[in-house]
């Protein structure tokens, strides 16, 4: 997966190198024999054997179709079952589920709303992307166009490994190690920049939106990096050469040929990163302050998110409480579904464009 | 006649002089030193921060100075080129720092409890004052849950991929392919909630006297949901790499399609499929959120994934990190180190396997 | 405008592989020089060495000296981008920027050089497209994607893009090999026209083309695969095609090998 040893040097080897792309879709498809179940019996001169109606062929095909359909079934089932548990809880809610900004679902008169959680989810994700995307694009360009191959391969490998590190480890590191520098940095920001509202407040600082977002940024980084790197690598070598032959510097070549070509792919990569950030649970549960209020202050203890709240509140939840958490999860599911579908739609359109151009 | 002779003053289109001045390395280093010195003077002079601020400000001053000086000597285009190059290199350094910190803390804090006791005992009867206690039960839980999830997800995923590559045509197949991709982005907590509402709260009470039953098996189901799209996707890519003539050769011999797939296509693609499965397993082993919701968690050893709560390594890290005992952090870090070791070994092995795979070259 | 190019003992390498071995030739201003020879003989490599595009490939390097009006372009203090601005290049396959319109493609080089004024850009676009014999075909759809044109039109668009920055030398690397005969003729007509302003070097597989368009012809060859390519003979096109000095050239011209 994603580990294509084909390199830039191969891509650009000759002046006659064509459109470079991974034709993953070309090689082994489309061969379908006239399907008969058993080879014709030797000898005899009779008619060819009839196509059996229920044979291994039909059975195997049926199984594989069922397995393929399973994916759709699961996605629909997720929606159905989440709704079935969420609706009773939302009915029991004495406040407006969308706008109320507290979370007391376990009381005899449950009151809860998703406003704070949705806000916190968006805030942490957006800050994380603001930090991660420029750095990720920088690394992707470094890997695709700047680094010598000796360095690009191991560094790309390390970035892929970073993606494999479990989120609970990042959460643990964020809380035990990274919180201290962030606290000091927050205090410093507060001392000199408290006139900017997001850096205001009287403390305590540290277990804040800033900490959660930065940890999240580190986790999103590898996704955006590896997807963008793939996209940048696919820039047709002949377009890069065209720019260079016009007298472009390396950066101008990147701006003229590489970035415009990669733009849709980068947008998709960023959206996939957003999907990951929105759904991240454990790392945020361990680094955010889990407070129920809507505040743009990013350095004071506080912050919350849909997913982190589920992890935190699940232990003490009664039946309505669980329903309320499932309802919030349903909202998260809907948001991530939309984001992911949009990202994939961009990638699919781009792939068609590229294949038809090739 | 050149249209540029009369226009665009100041733009030298085709310079007669192709020579250029380069920024000498000495000046470059000089700017860096000056930047740092000015930063230090500003920071300590006004008393507004410590060495970190000096470095940050120093880098900013260096970049500005470089841009100005290089712009004078080399011209704006070369200077801009240099600036972006510097920024891109800086991005790499910036990304390596947290990674190095994670690795360093994992190792330095993780070795503290890296002993036989940790791997041989559970947390049964371990109070807040007991320094012992281990993750034996959690390791058992992770192995069983991921094992069962793999047993379910692999056949399902491989069959799904076979459908997409060998049989799938038209709109339905495209829909399936699209949603496989979309499904890779479903948050793990949502998968956990799904299994919670579907299996734990609705199905499991049927055979548990009406009360929900949290179990390792429920965790396996949640992990299956997460592994399935990854396996379908990677298997699909591998199956597509199997050369068409190989299939045609079998068809020409009168071998039916299903046998061709099982006997020719799958074996050819097997190394690649195994790689994809290993990556999916590595990802599943590190999941915390779904296990937290449906496995129930337990302090003692439970070999039975179908009855009673079960622990997992990732969940163990989370719970120990939230534990008030002063011995808990050490246990959390050692468990984290173990978890990362398992995940990374699987990932690296998978990547090395992929590199040796003749199909994907 | 046009300049004189002098190569002396140019050898180009890909890593440790020597692609061409000590080529020396002089190209006079405002002439068309054709480079012919069998595949893999190093003629494209030599062409790419002339505007320092050869070194774009990892591990590629060059020995010897290449001067353009007595300035060695391989001197250490030479600005590569200035060299490439002075020596434009048209590639084997038409390669307009896929994300840009026809107009943007033509003015891409000017924009890189900091020309921002709309009137200058418009003027340059029109002039270059006219010079490239493309203006009449595209003047109504300048804002459509360049990739939507036919292959021959795309190649003329690339030529327009190259000459828009007013180079002094234009290198063409088999510019017609991906085109049909009619488009090929259009490009050849264009070359005659451009000869008044530029020094042109063209690599071609097509000997008729070389005979038709060029003033001088250089014949490259290799002894066997793995050996470096050499310049066997370099002379007036007339002479090369009627009465070559070297036996090898004659064999190649008459189709006895290659």
Automatic annotation (TrEMBL), chain A:
<keyword id="KW-0592">Phosphate transport</keyword>
<keyword id="KW-0472">Membrane</keyword>
<dbReference type="InterPro" id="IPR011864">
    <property type="entry name" value="Phosphate_PstC"/>
</dbReference>
<feature type="transmembrane region" description="Helical">
    <location>
        <begin position="324"/>
        <end position="347"/>
    </location>
</feature>
<feature type="transmembrane region" description="Helical">
    <location>
        <begin position="209"/>
        <end position="228"/>
    </location>
</feature>
<keyword id="KW-1003">Cell membrane</keyword>
<comment type="function">
    <text>Part of the binding-protein-dependent transport system for phosphate; probably responsible for the translocation of the substrate across the membrane.</text>
</comment>
<keyword id="KW-0812">Transmembrane</keyword>
<keyword id="KW-0813">Transport</keyword>
<feature type="compositionally biased region" description="Polar residues">
    <location>
        <begin position="1"/>
        <end position="16"/>
    </location>
</feature>
<dbReference type="Pfam" id="PF00528">
    <property type="entry name" value="BPD_transp_1"/>
</dbReference>
<feature type="transmembrane region" description="Helical">
    <location>
        <begin position="112"/>
        <end position="143"/>
    </location>
</feature>
<dbReference type="InterPro" id="IPR000515">
    <property type="entry name" value="MetI-like"/>
</dbReference>
<dbReference type="InterPro" id="IPR051124">
    <property type="entry name" value="Phosphate_Transport_Permease"/>
</dbReference>
<keyword id="KW-1133">Transmembrane helix</keyword>
From TrEMBL, chain B:
<feature type="transmembrane region" description="Helical">
    <location>
        <begin position="87"/>
        <end position="107"/>
    </location>
</feature>
<feature type="domain" description="ABC transmembrane type-1">
    <location>
        <begin position="139"/>
        <end position="354"/>
    </location>
</feature>
<feature type="transmembrane region" description="Helical">
    <location>
        <begin position="146"/>
        <end position="166"/>
    </location>
</feature>
<keyword id="KW-1003">Cell membrane</keyword>
<feature type="transmembrane region" description="Helical">
    <location>
        <begin position="214"/>
        <end position="232"/>
    </location>
</feature>
<dbReference type="InterPro" id="IPR000515">
    <property type="entry name" value="MetI-like"/>
</dbReference>
<dbReference type="InterPro" id="IPR005672">
    <property type="entry name" value="Phosphate_PstA"/>
</dbReference>
<comment type="function">
    <text>Part of the binding-protein-dependent transport system for phosphate; probably responsible for the translocation of the substrate across the membrane.</text>
</comment>
<feature type="transmembrane region" description="Helical">
    <location>
        <begin position="332"/>
        <end position="354"/>
    </location>
</feature>
<keyword id="KW-1133">Transmembrane helix</keyword>
<dbReference type="Pfam" id="PF00528">
    <property type="entry name" value="BPD_transp_1"/>
</dbReference>
<feature type="transmembrane region" description="Helical">
    <location>
        <begin position="52"/>
        <end position="75"/>
    </location>
</feature>
<keyword id="KW-0813">Transport</keyword>
<dbReference type="InterPro" id="IPR035906">
    <property type="entry name" value="MetI-like_sf"/>
</dbReference>
<keyword id="KW-0472">Membrane</keyword>
UniProtKB/TrEMBL annotation, chain C:
<feature type="domain" description="ABC transporter">
    <location>
        <begin position="5"/>
        <end position="247"/>
    </location>
</feature>
<keyword id="KW-0067">ATP-binding</keyword>
<protein>
    <submittedName>
        <fullName>Phosphate ABC transporter ATP-binding protein (PhoT family)</fullName>
    </submittedName>
</protein>
<dbReference type="GO" id="GO:0016887">
    <property type="term" value="F:ATP hydrolysis activity"/>
</dbReference>
<keyword id="KW-0547">Nucleotide-binding</keyword>
<dbReference type="GO" id="GO:0016020">
    <property type="term" value="C:membrane"/>
</dbReference>
<dbReference type="InterPro" id="IPR003593">
    <property type="entry name" value="AAA+_ATPase"/>
</dbReference>
<dbReference type="InterPro" id="IPR003439">
    <property type="entry name" value="ABC_transporter-like_ATP-bd"/>
</dbReference>
<keyword id="KW-1278">Translocase</keyword>
<dbReference type="InterPro" id="IPR017871">
    <property type="entry name" value="ABC_transporter-like_CS"/>
</dbReference>
<keyword id="KW-0813">Transport</keyword>
<dbReference type="GO" id="GO:0035435">
    <property type="term" value="P:phosphate ion transmembrane transport"/>
</dbReference>
<dbReference type="GO" id="GO:0005315">
    <property type="term" value="F:phosphate transmembrane transporter activity"/>
</dbReference>
<dbReference type="InterPro" id="IPR027417">
    <property type="entry name" value="P-loop_NTPase"/>
</dbReference>
<dbReference type="InterPro" id="IPR005670">
    <property type="entry name" value="PstB-like"/>
</dbReference>
């Amino acid at each position: 997966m994603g580990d294509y040893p084909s390199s830039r040097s191969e891509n650009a080897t000759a002046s006659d190198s064509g459109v470079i792309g991974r034709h993953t879709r070309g090689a082994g498809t489309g061969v379908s024999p006239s399907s008969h179940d058993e080879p014709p019996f030797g000898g005899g001169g009779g008619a060819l054997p009839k196509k059996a109606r229920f044979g291994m062929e039909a059975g195997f095909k049926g199984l594989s179709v069922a397995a393929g359909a399973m994916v759709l079934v699961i996605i629909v089932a997720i929606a159905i079952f989440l709704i079935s548990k969420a609706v009773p809880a939302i009915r029991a809610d004495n406040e407006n589920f969308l706008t109320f900004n507290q979370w007391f679902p376990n009381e005899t008169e449950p009151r809860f709303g998703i406003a704070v959680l949705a806000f916190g989810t968006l805030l942490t994700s957006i800050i994380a992307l603001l930090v991660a995307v420029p750095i990720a694009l920088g690394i992707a360009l470094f890997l695709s166009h700047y680094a010598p191959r000796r360095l690009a391969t191991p560094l790309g490998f390390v970035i892929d490994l970073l993606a494999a590190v479990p989120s609970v480890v990042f959460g643990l590191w964020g809380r035990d190690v990274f919180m201290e520098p962030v606290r000091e940095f927050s205090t410093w920001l507060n001392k000199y920049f408290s006139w900017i509202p997001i850096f205001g407040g009287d403390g305590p600082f540290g277990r804040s939106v800033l900490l959660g977002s930065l940890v999240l940024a580190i986790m999103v980084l590898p996704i955006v990096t590896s997807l963008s790197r793939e996209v940048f690598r696919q820039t047709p070598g002949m377009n890069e050469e065209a720019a260079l032959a016009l007298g472009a510097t390396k950066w101008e070549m990147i701006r003229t040929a590489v970035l415009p070509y990669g733009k849709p792919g980068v947008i998709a990569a960023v959206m996939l990163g957003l999907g990951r950030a929105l759904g991240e649970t454990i790392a945020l549960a361990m680094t955010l302050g889990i407070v129920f209020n809507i505040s743009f202050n990013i350095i004071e203890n506080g912050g919350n998110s849909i997913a982190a709240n589920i992890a935190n509140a699940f232990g003490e939840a009664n039946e309505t409480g669980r329903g309320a958490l499932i309802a919030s999860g349903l909202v998260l599911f809907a948001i991530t579904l939309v984001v992911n579908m949009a990202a994939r739609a961009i990638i699919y359109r781009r792939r068609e464009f590229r294949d038809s151009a090739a | 006649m050149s249209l540029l002779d009369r226009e665009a003053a100041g733009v030298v289109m085709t310079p007669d002089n192709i020579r250029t001045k380069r920024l000498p390395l000495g000046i470059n280093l000089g700017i860096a030193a000056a930047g740092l010195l000015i930063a230090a003077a500003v920071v300590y002079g006004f008393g507004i921060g410590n060495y970190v601020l000096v470095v940050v400000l120093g880098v900013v001053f260096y970049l500005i100075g470089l841009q100005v000086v290089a712009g004078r000597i080399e011209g704006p285009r070369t200077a801009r080129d240099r600036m972006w190059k510097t920024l891109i290199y800086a991005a790499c350094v910036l990304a390596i720092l947290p990674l190095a910190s994670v690795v360093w803390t994992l190792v330095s804090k993780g070795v503290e409890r890296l002993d036989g006791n940790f791997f041989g005992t559970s947390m049964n009867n371990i109070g807040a004052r007991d320094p012992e206690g281990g993750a034996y039960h959690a390791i058992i839980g992770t192995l069983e849950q991921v094992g069962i999830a793999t047993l379910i997800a692999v056949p399902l995923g491989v069959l799904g991929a076979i459908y997409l590559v060998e049989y799938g045509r038209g709109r339905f197949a495209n829909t399936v392919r699209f949603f496989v991709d979309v499904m890779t982005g479903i948050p793990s907590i949502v998968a956990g909630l799904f299994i919670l509402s579907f299996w734990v709260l609705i199905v499991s009470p049927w055979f548990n006297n009406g009360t929900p039953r949290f179990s390792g098996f429920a965790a396996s189901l949640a992990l299956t949901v997460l592994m399935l799209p990854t396996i379908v996707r990677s298997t699909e890519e591998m199956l597509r790499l199997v050369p068409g003539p190989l299939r045609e050769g079998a068809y020409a011999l009168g071998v039916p399609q299903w046998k061709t797939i099982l006997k020719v296509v799958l074996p050819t693609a097997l190394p690649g499929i195994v790689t994809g499965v290993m990556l999916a397993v590595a990802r599943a082993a590190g999941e915390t959120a779904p296990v937290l919701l449906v496995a129930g968690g337990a302090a003692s050893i439970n070999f039975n994934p179908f009855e009673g709560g079960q622990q997992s390594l990732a969940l163990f890290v989370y719970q120990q990190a939230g534990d008030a005992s002063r011995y808990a952090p050490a246990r959390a870090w050692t468990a984290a180190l173990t978890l990362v070791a398992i995940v990374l070994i699987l990932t690296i092995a998978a990547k090395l396997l992929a590199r040796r795979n003749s199909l994907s070259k | 405008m046009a300049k004189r190019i002098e190569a002396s003992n140019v050898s180009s390498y890909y890593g440790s592989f020597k692609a061409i071995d000590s080529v020396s030739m002089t190209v006079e201003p405002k002439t068309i020089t054709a480079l012919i020879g069998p595949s893999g003989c190093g003629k494209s490599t030599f062409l790419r060495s002339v505007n320092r595009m050869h070194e774009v490939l990892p591990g590629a390097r060059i020995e010897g000296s290449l001067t353009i009006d007595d300035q060695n372009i391989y001197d250490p203090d030479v600005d590569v981008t200035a060299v490439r601005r002075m020596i434009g290049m048209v590639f084997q396959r038409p390669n307009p920027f896929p994300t840009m319109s026809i107009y943007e493609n033509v003015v891409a080089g000017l924009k890189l050089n900091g020309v921002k004024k709309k009137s200058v850009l418009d003027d340059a676009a029109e002039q270059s497209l006219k010079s490239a014999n493309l203006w009449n075909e595209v003047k109504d759809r300048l804002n459509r994607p360049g990739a939507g044109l036919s292959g021959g039109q795309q190649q003329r668009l690339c030529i327009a893009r190259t000459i828009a920055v007013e180079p002094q030398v234009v290198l063409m690397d088999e510019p017609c090999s991906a085109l049909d005969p009619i488009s090929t003729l259009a490009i050849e007509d264009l070359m005659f026209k451009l000869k008044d302003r530029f020094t042109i070097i063209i690599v071609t597989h097509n000997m008729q083309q070389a005979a038709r368009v060029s003033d001088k012809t250089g014949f490259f060859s290799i002894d066997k695969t793995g050996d470096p390519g050499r310049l066997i003979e370099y002379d007036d096109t007339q002479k090369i095609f009627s009465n070559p000095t070297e036996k090898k050239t004659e064999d190649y011209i008459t189709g006895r090998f290659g």
